[in-house]
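Open question from group meeting: does this chain pack into something compact, or does most of it stay loose? Before anyone orders reagents, we agreed to write out a predicted structure and look at it together. Recording both the input and the output here so the notebook holds the full record.
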Amino acid sequence: MKTSRTTNNVVKSLTVLALAANVSFGATQAQAGEKEIGQILAALAAVAIAARVSNNQSSSGNAQTVQLIQVSSNRAALPSSLQTADGDSIRVVSTPGSGSGPTLLCLKTSSGMWAKALNFSNGAVLNSEGGTRACTNVAAGNVQFDFIKAKFAGVMTYVGSSSMNLTGWEGGTVTINWVAD
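Structure tokens returned:
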């Protein structure tokens, strides 16, 4: 099959891309055989790029076209931890999603913990107590919220505020774990 020269160029290009994982490039096509496609797809996984493979008939016989397409690399960085004004520890755990639709934003408390809440600037409220988890769908972009917790006699009290940029987290889940107070 007359594909090894082009395939070698694609593999070399992918190696360079793997070293500079955030390089943006348009659609690129190369002719490759089945064995080379497996190698290319393995390299693609390392650089967050998807591939479309299609069979083509050409004058030189059967060939497969590999089209490289960059997948979202514009995901905003999320904090790994937050802290309230009175020193409570909060851990942020995230799972990337499909890249479309709302982001599931959750509040989870540790077992035995008194009531906690997140009050969002859009009026939504998440409440959690004693190891429970509450979630809501939010749109991508900047999300602002206040930390509220039960204090003396169970009175819900403001203990700080924060914000997160959820751009690029569409279809994913971001959980705010209130781990210690």
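Observations to bring back to the group:
The first strand starts at residue 28 and ends at 32.
Helices lie at 4-19, 34-46.
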